[in-house]
Amino acid sequence: MAGFAGIAAAGKSIERLLNACFAEDEPVPGKRTRAVLARTGDFEESNRASGIGSPAVSIFLYRVDFNKTMRAAWSAVGSQDGRSHLAVDLHFLLTPWAENAEFEHRILGKVLQCIETKPVLSGPLLHPSTDWAPNESLQLVAEDVSTEAIMRTFDSLPTDYRLSVPYIARLVRIDGPRASIDVPVTTAITGTAAGLTV
To answer: Residue ranges of the domains in the chain?
Structure first.
């Protein structure tokens, strides 16, 4: 079951899916497009060439939310098996990077085609950097976010606004470690107290 490494494994699963799609059908003629996980510092112009590169699509995790639908259910499971189970949704911005607008549009089109062709990742499509349960899967859903909200996100990043598509990866479960089972300690006390046998 996915533990603390589940968030990273989800990002790597998306990265691997997109890179496989680019290898199968290159969106930028004569180039090699790649998908890369990005952090805030990678958007700085001085880091962009070495971090994200071009042509590329950056996969930027900008928000982590607990899943409001599954939180109570997994808490109930935790009360039974003695482990914590936190179900979270991961909010990603997918941003194309290329030398001109046409190539960026082609990259973005390929990303959308790829994800909509395989919107559910399970089994061998999940990155092996964590222990996924056999029945776990990752669903990729286009998120309905206003342009204004995306622009506000870019206001906090060290780059100007870029064409981006928001996606939610759900449901990632962060399971706590297995609880150690304590052996109950019992002591038999025998003796007589006020004529009673204890």
So the answer is: 6-197
Tell me the pTM: 0.80
Q: What percent of the chain has pLDDT over 70?
A: 79
Q: How many other CB atoms are there within 10 angstroms of residue 186's CB atom?
A: 5
The per-residue DSSP string of the chain comes to: ---TTHHHHHHHHHHHHHHHHHHHS-SSTTS--EEEEE-GGGGSHHHHHHHT-SSEEEEEEEEEEE-TTTHHHHHHHHHHHS--EEEEEEEEEEEEE-SSHHHHHHHHHHHHHHHHHS-EEEGGGS-TTS---TT-EEEEEE----HHHHHHHHHTTTS-----EEEEEEEEEEEPPPPP-PPPP------EETTEE-
What is the per-residue pLDDT across 2-27, written as a single tens digit (0 to 9) for each? 678 889 999 999 999 999 999 999 99
